[in-house]
Amino acid sequence: MTLSIIVPVLNEAQALPLLLERLLPLLRHGCEVIIADGGSDDDSADIAQCAGFTLVRSARGRARQMNAGAARASFDTLLFLHADTQLPDGAAVLVEQALSGSHCWGRFDVCIAGRAFMLRVVGRMMNLRSRLSGIATGDQAMFVSRAAFDAVGGFPDQPLMEDVELSKRLRKFSRPACVKRCVTTSGRRWETRGVWRTILLMWRLRWGYWRGVPASQLAEAYR
Questions:
Q1: CB 110 within 8 A of CB 127
Q2: What are the pLDDT digits (tens) for 3-44?
Q3: Which residues contact 113 (CB under 8 A, 6 or more apart)?
């Protein structure tokens, strides 16, 4: 299987060198890595290009950046990776196995790195919630066949909950495949804002989205 990995970035010059170093083995084994820059005013774009990765520039907004990366992708399977998330070893093979049956999309389990014990609990709860609901989040490194991605029109052009909305649309084709090997995502957002405060905020945002509050209004509360 050929795999296109799409990474939306915005002013990630500090984190990019380590991320790109971790992605180099996948690049060398035939995967395509696309850095979708949303108008960084630091050295993010230059770092990606100098390292030999494909660079796509787009309008700012994670959904827009990921759609721009997908439009540039050469292969039939797309994986969307946040800049602060690390794939496990053998990720391409794990994705291939996950999509070898009736599934057209899926996600990884996630572990949240950080000092606070509650971050491990949060990660487990996220994974349990995904299993029960069939909804994945961007932190779980969502992957999807190009055919299914195109059939639902890609990510919706909204500033928040684009991953939740894409999951809802893809769920009409199949439930997500679950790769139990964890991706590891940074807990910096949780630790900076406070773990419990962030938990409550995220549940409040999801509850608002379920009730029909516009994503633009929720994005203001998130910021």
A1: yes
A2: 999 999 999 998 899 999 999 999 988 999 999 999 999 999
A3: 119, 184, 185, 186, 187
**Is 216 contained in some domain?**
no
Q: Which pLDDT score is estimated for 15?
A: 87
Residues 39/57, Cβ–Cβ less than 8 Å = yes
Distance CA 179, CA 10 (A): 28
Residue 200: inside a domain: no
Q: Which of 147, 28, 179, 151 is nearest to 78 (CA)?
A: 147
pTM of the model: 0.93
Residue 203 has pLDDT above 90, yes or no: no
Tell whether the model's pLDDT for residue 196 goes beyond 90: no
Give the integer Cα–Cα distance in Å for 214 and 187.
Answer: 27
Q: Please say whether the beta carbons of 117 and 195 come within 8 A.
A: no
Q: Residue 115: which pLDDT band, with cuts at 50, 70 and 90?
A: confident
Q: Is residue 98 part of a domain?
A: yes
- In 3D space, the residue among 126, 147, 153, 124 whose CA is nearest the CA of residue 137 turns out to be 126
CATH code, domain carrying 166: 3.90.550.10
